Sequence to fold (148 residues):
Amino acid sequence: MRSELLSDLASIGYEIFLEGNNLRYRYQKPGNPPETVKPLIEELRRCKAEVVSILKMGEEDTVAPTEKSQPQADETASWPLEDQYLLDWFMTVEAPTEPFYLEPHRHVVAPAKFYSALRMDITAGPAGPRARMGTLQSDLRKLKAYKK
Fold:
């Protein structure tokens, strides 16, 4: 695998992440991705095992404390106050039963699975990969606007 593959995809606008042991990627910019990205996506698929390994190494550096090592209250207390309000709101809502569009280019086809993944991201704490990059908070803000 080319060492620049992941950074090339990120610069085009792709978020590349793991969902369990599954490699996932999502185009984050409005509209459709450029046609020039197809060879990069194919390379990503061919090198899936290596990419998963690289992403897992990155997760090891950002693993949140376990419940045994740190109580739940201490974990949530480290969130900034504005984020804590979003987390509190999210934990009280149920996942929709029907697919929906989070953004014009992001169709959530399995809401229960999406909500479960968000709850896992919250459990990882503010040092988790999606929270650290602001993606989790952005998704929660969009959900709150969608639910109004």
Summary: The helical segments are 5-12, 38-46, 48-61, 72-77, 81-92, 111-123, 129-132, 135-147. The first helix runs from residue 5 to 12.
